[in-house]
Amino acid sequence: CYCSCIDILFTLSFEFVMIYVILYRTLVFCVMIRRPPRSTLDRSSAASDVYKRQDSDLSIMKEASDVLNEFGISNEMKIISAHRSPHLLSEYASNAHMNGMKVIIAGAGAAAHLPGVTAAFTPLPIIGVPIKSRSLDGLDSLLSIVQMPSGVPVATVAINGAKNAGILAAQILAASDDQMMEKILAYKTKLSVESIKKNEKIV
Q: Counting beta carbons within 10 angstroms of the beta carbon of residue 103, is it exposed (0 to 12), middle (13 to 18) or buried (19 or more)?
């Protein structure tokens, strides 16, 4: 009986937290990666459409865009809410593959349904970025994104791991693009050199 009471209290408490999150903390961001033509892989070809907002979550997701720009991958950044503007999300995600998109990176915090709902509307690969929340330190975001039902996959990176999401998107594109694969291999080599060089600082 004591355990049952605890379970009920925990459930009620969790539901209250989630209701609070939905009303006050649903901040969602979506980065769409568009492969440019092979002849226009330079930075100047990047089609970037950014809706700016004064929020730390946007700076986190910008890390994905920055990485994509480094690889010369055209991308655009949107703020779309799965809860507040579901029809916009439906239209945007459903038409993404017809608009030249190849990968979608979706970041969301708390009741983080954006990546999963996006995956339901598009045949494109989805990479989910859990954004750290104030209530549960991002664990709610992580579980909301990673626990997808069978048949609707979302590749999920670490909490606030937008940079890795950008790298993963580039690797997905590299699987069918030799020029991009060379850039990925060069990036891996750079990481290795930087890591080994750190030994020089050990006294």
A: buried
Sign of torsion over alpha carbons 30, 78, 101, 64: negative
The DSSP string of 154-197 is -EE--TT-HHHHHHHHHHHHHTT-HHHHHHHHHHHHHHHHHHHH
CA 146, 139, 49: angle at the middle one, nearest 5? 65
Helix (H, G, I), strand (E, B) or coil at 32: strand
Residue 34: CB atoms within 10 A of its CB come to: 18
141-173: pLDDT as tens digits: 999 999 999 999 999 999 999 999 999 999 999
CA distance 31 to 49: 10
How many CB atoms neighbour CB 113 within 10 A? Answer: 21
The answer to whether the CB of 61 falls within 8 A of the CB of 107 is yes
CA angle 92, 110, 55 (to 5 degrees): 70
Q: What is the pLDDT of residues 67-112, one digit of tens each?
A: 999 999 999 888 888 888 899 999 999 999 999 899 999 998 888 8
What pTM was computed for the model? Answer: 0.74
User: What digits encode the pLDDT tens for the residues 3-28?
Assistant: 433 333 333 333 333 332 233 333 34
Distance in angstroms (rounded) separating the CA atoms of residues 88 and 142:
24
